Amino acid sequence: MIILLLHVAHIQAQKTSVFKSFFKLSRPEKCWVMRHPFIAKKAFIKTQDVLKITDSIAKSTVLDGDKNGGQVDAFRHAYWMALLSKHFGRHKALRLGRAHEKGNHIDYKKHRLEEGTHPDKVSSDMDLYNNIGGAALENDNKTATDKELQTLVINAIKAGKMKIIKKDSHGNFLDKDNTIIPADSLKGKWENGKCLINSDWKFIPKTG
Considering the entire predicted model, what is its pTM? Predict the structure, then answer.
């Protein structure tokens, strides 16, 4: 009886968590949920799994540890789309990815942060590119397990097949000429001097 009550309580807690999360979504994401009511909860759970795995990878040395425009950021989006494509179909997954980026643009207009940073066009372009890359990776590896998809995404990032934002070794954003972009100049600007580069790029400081 106690086990049954604990199970029921766990289910209710999950429902409450999903319910609260719905109201935190942007308008485009809510529209996606309403169009896909039968898979929305499962997609939410898979998304939470991706976030947990991403946090674990960020704390390891598998990738660069950078969750804001770096390889870990690329992993989050690519694996998210690969996983959702595997379980719910490529088109549904990519539509959710696009809805998420539309939500980021709305956040920018309302001066809200995304993952603790100001949204901008380059970051959105990066996410959309990696979304497509992750979905394509799953499409080319239909028999891959969730764990195997993780490895495939990591390998693709290390091979330069995804996109990251150019930074120096101290985490400063760089323009196309490898000049540091002042942080103040990025605030409140949707379009700025940030650059997208292949995900295997490494900053090499000038010598002499």
Answer: 0.87
